[in-house]
Amino acid sequence: MKKALKFLALAVALFSAFALSAKDRNTILKVYNWSDYIAEGVVEDFEKWYFEQTGEKIEVIYMTFDVNESMLSKIENGHEDYDVVCPSDYIIERMLNSGLILPLDFSALGSTPNYIEQCRSPYIEKMFRAINPEIDANDYSVAYMWGTTGILYNTTMVTREEASTWDVVRNPKFAGKILIKDAPRDVYGPVLIYLKQEELKKGTVTLQDLMMDSSEESLAAVKDYLLQVKPGVCGWEADLGKEQMTKNRAYVSLNWSGDAKWAIEEAASVGVTLDYVVPEEGSTVWFDGWVIPRYAKNTKAALYWIDFMCRPDVAIRNFEEMGYSPSCGAPEVLEAMIDENEYEPVDLSYFFGEEATAVCVDPVLFPDKSVIDRCALEHDWGQDTEKLLSMWQDVKGSQASAATYIVIAVVIIAGIAYFAVSAASKKSRHTSRKRRR
Question: For residue 328, what is the DSSP state?
Fold first, then answer.
C-alpha cells in the first residue's frame, strides 16, 4: 500500500511538471523580485495592459526572494528560467561582468511607448554607466528603487550636529543605544569614507576609489574602528532595528533611507521624533534594478514588464505603497512628491532636470544635490568579497554580550507583537525592506 501511494505521488509530481513544461512559455512571464516590493494589483494590471498592447495573453508567475546571493546562485547554475529579476547594484555588476544578463532589445516594444528611455533620470543613467566603465549597464538593466545610507537618530537625545558624522556610532554618550546594520558592505563603505577624510580633502583619492578599495590596509583600518565601536553597540540588526528606534530603545541607527522613512512615520504616530541625515563626510547610494537573465524564456514579455514598471503612474503607485524612492524621472513623479506645506525647497536638478532646482519634497527620499555630490556607488569586489565577510565576522565575533542577548530577545518579542497587530490592521504604507547583503 505504501509503495502504491509513493508511486501515485511520484506520478502526480511528474504529471504536474510535464503540464507546466508543456505550457507555451510565450504565455508565461516568470518574475523574481524582493519580498513586499510591489504595490497590490500591479501584477494583474500588467497582465491586462500586456494584452491591450500586444493582443496576447500573459500569465505572471510572481516569485520572491530575501537574499541577493540565493537568487544569483539559481541563475548562475542555470537551474531556473526566470524571465526578469530585480537584483541590487553590486549583483547587477557581478551579473554584467559574468555575462549573465541579456541586452535590452527596445525594438520588441513595437508601437508601445518606451517608458524606459522616456522616463530615465539623468542621475540614474549616470550612476548605471559607472557600474562598469567598459559596458554601459543602461543597455542591460533598468533601475527600480534607490536610496542612501545614513544615520537615523532620535532628535530628543541626539542633535543633528552629533548625527551628521559617522563617528556618532563611536560616541560614548550614546553607548548601549547604538544599532548597526548587519550588512558588511553598507557599513564598510561609510566607515572607510570617514577614515579617509584627509586623503579625500587632499584629492589623493576619490569616493569612487574607496568603493573599490579592498586592500588589506583598509580592511584592517575599518576592522580596528569597528572594534572600537563594538562596546557601545546594542545590536547588529538586519530588519527590526528601525522598530527599536520607534520605541525609544535605541537613539542612533546606521540605516538605509527607505527604512528610515518608515521609522520616522511610525515613530511620529506614537509621539517619538526621529530624523535622518547623510553624514557630512560622505556616504553611499544603492539601487535595485530589473534585468533579463541569460536563461530567460520570454524576453519579450520581460521587456514589457520593465517598461510597465517605468510607467509614471505605476512608479507612483509602487512608491506610495512601499515608500522607497522611485527611479523614474518623469515630471509626474516629481509632481506627486511635492508638498510645499511640509518640506523646504531642495535642489533635485540632478534627478529631474533644471526645472527642479528648488522643489519641496522629502529630503530623506530625494536628497539635495549637495548631499548626492558626496555619495558614491558601491561596487562588487569579486573574489575579494570573502575578505570583507571574514573581517565582518571577526568584528562581530562568536560571543555576544548579555546586553546583546537581552536586546535580541526584546526585538523578537516586539517584532512578534508588532506583526500581530499589523496583521489585524490596515497594511502600513511602508513595508519592511529585506534587500542588502
Answer: B
